[in-house]
Write a structure and sequence with these properties.
- InterPro entries: ACP_syn_III_C, ACP_syn_III_N, Thiolase-like.
- The protein is an alpha/beta fold and about 280 residues long.
- About 30% of the residues lie in helices and about 30% in strands.
- The protein has a four-stranded mixed beta sheet with strand order 2-1-3-4, with helices on both faces. The chain has a four-stranded mixed beta sheet with strand order 5-12-11-10, sandwiched between helices.
- The two termini are about 25 Å apart.
Length: about 280
């Protein structure tokens, strides 16, 4: 899935795999194990034939695309790279207990990717503000623990528990933390919600968005909700949301977009970008 998402993003940007080298950084977020080693970003780069692209894997669940965006921005500002591929992939299905009413039916599998490059000097386009926070005291609100590992003749057998979530508590924490994150991001961008043409949010579930976003002062008519048919795609949710919004014609030159992501940890982030 991640390979397809990165290829599609490169095609849309008019960039061929063969022209990518050390000037490009791949920041990949993955939830779902394909290899214990090497890191997921290197496996992805090798599978795509990205021979000299520098790779960084990010361990994350839902909020981390904002973290990756900040890493890319910092590297741009320091002159350390001229392009970033931010990608995320997830497959929650094996971790979900079909008998658990808290989680069954909420999650899906998918992947998304975007290509970021630094804005030209004095350009109105680009990143206008970004904030992210982690509140690790809430880490137990959603867990999939390793239960056991056992050496066998041909390898190691590892057992993980089903994902368990305290949904109502997570929602309360999300609203409290997001209120501050959102305010600081808009202050840095010197704009208001009304100045944003679109809000692309992580999609935990439609009910939470319908109840929670108005409490943050975000009009629902600014927020596409593809989670209604895709489910919660974890770290891929925000990137897939950007892609579907672009395909629907909601993102065009000059549009100011607020990105909002939040998830287990508890981590939350927001960014304002003018396209």
């Amino acid at each position: 899935m991640a390979q397809g998402a990165v290829r599609n993003a490169l095609d849309q940007a008019g960039i061929s795999i063969g022209e990518l080298g050390a000037e490009t950084v791949l920041l990949h977020i993955q939830n779902g194990i394909t290899h214990l080693t090497p890191p997921a970003s290197i496996v992805l780069a090798g599978s795509l034939g990205l021979k000299r692209v520098r790779c960084l894997s990010i361990d994350g669940v839902c909020a981390e695309p904002i973290n990756a965006l900040e890493i890319a921005a910092l590297m741009f500002n320091a002159g350390l790279c001229s392009r970033a591929i931010i990608s995320a992939s997830v497959d929650f299905t094996a971790l979900i207990d079909p008998a658990d009413n808290q989680t069954s039916g909420l999650f899906g599998c998918g992947a998304g990717a975007l290509i970021a490059e630094p804005a030209k000097a004095n350009s109105p386009y680009g990143l206008h503000g970004l904030t992210w926070e982690t509140h690790s005291e809430h880490w137990k609100l959603g867990v999939s623990p390793m239960l056991s590992s056992r050496a066998e003749k041909n390898g190691v057998s590892v057992t993980f528990g089903h994902y368990q979530m305290k949904g109502q508590e997570l929602a309360r924490v999300a609203l409290r933390v997001l209120n501050g994150v959102l305010g600081r991001t808009l202050d840095e961008a010197t704009c208001s919600i009304n100045d944003c043409d679109l809000v692309v949010s992580h999609q935990p579930n439609v009910k939470m968005l319908d109840i929670g976003l108005p409490r943050l002062g975000i009009p629902l008519d600014k927020v596409p909700r593809p989670g209604a048919w895709m489910g919660n795609l974890g770290p891929a949710s925000l990137l897939v949301g950007l892609s579907t919004a672009k395909e629907s014609g909601l993102i065009a030159d000059g549009k100011k977009v607020l990105l909002l992501s939040f998830g287990l940890g508890f981590s939350a982030g927001a960014a304002v970008i003018q396209f």
